[in-house]
Amino acid sequence: MTTLVRRTRHVLGSEIAGSVVAFVLVVVVFGLASPQFLSRATFGSVAFQLPELGLLTLAMLLPILTGGLNLAITFTANIAGLTVAWTLQANGGVDAGPGSFLLGVALALAAGAASGVVMGLVIAYTKAHPILVSLSMMIFLRGLGEFLTRGGDVSGFPAFLRPFGHGSVMGIPVPLLIFILCVALWHVLLSRTRLGFNTYMIGSNIEAARYSGVNTRRVIVLVYTLSGAMCAVAGTIMLARFNSVRVGHGESYLLITVLACFLGGVNPFGGFGRVIPVFAALVVLQLFSSGLNLLGANQHLATAVWGILLVGVMMLRWLAGHFRTVLRRKE
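RE: above sequence
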């Protein structure tokens, strides 16, 4: 196993090596445990379920890289989805045209970005902890959504939305194509732009970044704005997938997005992490979830497993760091 890890790390990089090894373990273990796991149906299901979780993980990634957190991602996505739904209903419901949908998406992006702007401004100018600020936003959005919907669902959308949630292009699900496009966008943003470079600088040392001439307040506001906008994309995809929207949909995704970031090698204190390893970690987690479902595991048990995995990942990373420190001292 040690040899496999070293070879994978040499070829793909240290951040993605762990995810690749985890992928192999998941495929082997669940492939032996269930004959149905290694089937086209399983991987097709993963391809359709991955995008909504993946888009929310991308929304979580940027704040974590700055040393922060966005606990409001799921409710921001649901409010954005409700914005699209209300726009469609105001323009004919099931008879609404593509123009109404585009208007709804634009308004949803604006709503998602607005929640991010508010969080970013408060964090940047008051120096309040991101956990407290995003928790406050989460409570606000949840209460607002439940008040406006009275705790119910909003449904009844045009038929042309179905391909966005269930369609395929050359055998590749449309939601997966949108997710891959967003992964590429985030990869370019973080690796090729000044905003990405400044994001890493702030996560590594915000005071050093400030003394280097970086407008840290502006960067933090932009980071949370982009996070909110990505939540809006996720909310729109969820609307098309389920043909309905409700405030509490996807609450369990919050834990898994954090787990995916950490499993993908992102430093929980900010300053280090890449998009591609996080993408690989998401595939592993989605396969793991599908494997549990095939074995008949209760959904509550699956949620408990996510929590144990999160604790396990943090412990393993601490042990790895401690082991590297000991080796350096011996050298």
